[in-house]
């Protein structure tokens, strides 16, 4: 029985690491796709393919229950808009910077989210959290420096904006889903449909270009839609239900490490001493900030009766996945 339990833990950990790897690789895939097609066309294709896949899964798993509830529709529409905003800024950003930088800078979401989400909590975050945030800010400066200090690059600035919008999206997920019986798959399906509708007008004139795209570009689009969005979401949902939130957060937090590894190994990117130091500081700062915030949130003396909604937010799979959907 013990051996079976250990095997289950290892299988769950492996799935979470696979999700982190897939998300980390999404930046290079998005960069490759946007080199061949306009950004908005790439986003439309990614959303449309994801929506078709999600609708198929919903149809298969319906089993006599309602496809969508009113709460799922009410939450899905605004969350679909904010998710689309994250992806449009993020995709433009990764088109103008390295995949490694994109994956590292977007991880600022980890420390930005607690700064934006002050609902249901008294007092301020502890000083070590702000120290960790300072480390992350220093890391961003080093990542932007490249081979030497110069004016910030457009792509890096856009990734900073994307991290801020994604943090706001995560907070909004908690506000829209707290206290409501919302199924993650149905919520994600609504979001993909909203994104498809938003990007269709901007992409409609370029649809012939999409139809005639080469197989390699289509492979990137399918990978972004089916693996980085649909598969990663469903796999994360499955895994989070079988492990602790802390363990899942730790394993999923390896996403920027995979982004760097994929960018260097497959994208031909390289880290200078300055960017290498920035990468190390970013990883250290985000992990430090995450651990401080988690300890602050779970401290008994700071817990209030109304924090049940926040606990639900931290465990909500959609809150972590839609970045990237990422």
UniProtKB/TrEMBL annotation:
Keywords: Cell membrane, Membrane, Transmembrane, Transmembrane helix. The chain crosses the membrane at residues 40-61, 73-93, 99-116, 128-145, 157-178, 185-205, 217-236. Gene3D superfamilies: 1.10.3730.20. It is found in: Cell membrane. Its main location: membrane. The keyword Transmembrane applies. InterPro entries: Diverse_Substrate_Transporter, EamA_dom, EmrE-like. Residues 298-314 have a biased composition (Basic and acidic residues). It is a multi-pass membrane protein. Residues 317-326 have a biased composition (Low complexity). This is DMT family transporter. It comes from Streptomyces shaanxiensis. The lineage of its organism: Bacteria, Bacillati, Actinomycetota, Actinomycetes, Kitasatosporales.
């Amino acid at each position: 029985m013990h051996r079976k339990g250990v095997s289950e833990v290892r299988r769950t950990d492996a799935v979470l690491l696979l999700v982190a790897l897939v998300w980390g690789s999404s930046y290079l895939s998005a960069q490759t796709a946007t080199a061949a097609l306009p950004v908005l066309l790439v986003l439309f294709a990614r959303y449309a393919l994801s929506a078709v896949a999600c609708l198929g899964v919903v149809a298969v798993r319906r089993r006599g229950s309602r496809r969508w509830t009113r709460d799922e529709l009410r939450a899905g529409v605004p969350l679909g808009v904010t998710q689309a905003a994250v992806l449009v800024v993020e995709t433009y950003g990764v088109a103008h910077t390295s995949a490694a930088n994109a994956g590292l800078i977007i991880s600022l979401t980890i420390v930005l989210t607690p700064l934006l989400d002050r609902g249901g909590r008294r007092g301020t975050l502890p000083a070590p959290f702000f120290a960790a945030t300072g480390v992350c800010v220093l890391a961003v400066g080093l990542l932007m420096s490249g081979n030497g200090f110069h004016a910030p690059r457009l792509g890096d600035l856009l990734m900073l904006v994307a991290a801020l919008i994604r943090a706001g999206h995560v907070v909004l997920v908690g506000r829209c889903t707290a206290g409501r019986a919302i199924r993650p798959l149905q919520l994600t399906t609504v979001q993909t449909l909203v994104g498809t509708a938003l990007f269709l007008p901007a992409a409609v004139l370029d649809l012939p270009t999409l139809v005639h795209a080469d197989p390699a570009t289509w492979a990137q689009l399918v990978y972004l839609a089916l693996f980085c969005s649909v598969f990663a979401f469903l796999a994360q949902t499955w895994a989070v239900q079988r492990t602790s939130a802390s363990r899942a957060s730790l394993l999923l937090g390896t996403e920027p490490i995979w982004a760097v590894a994929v960018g260097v190994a497959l994208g031909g990117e390289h880290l200078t001493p300055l960017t290498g130091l920035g990468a190390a500081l970013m990883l250290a700062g985000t992990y430090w900030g995450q651990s401080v915030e988690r300890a602050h949130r779970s401290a008994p003396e700071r817990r209030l009766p109304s924090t049940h909604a926040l606990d639900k937010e931290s465990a909500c799979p959609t809150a972590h996945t839609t970045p990237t959907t990422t």
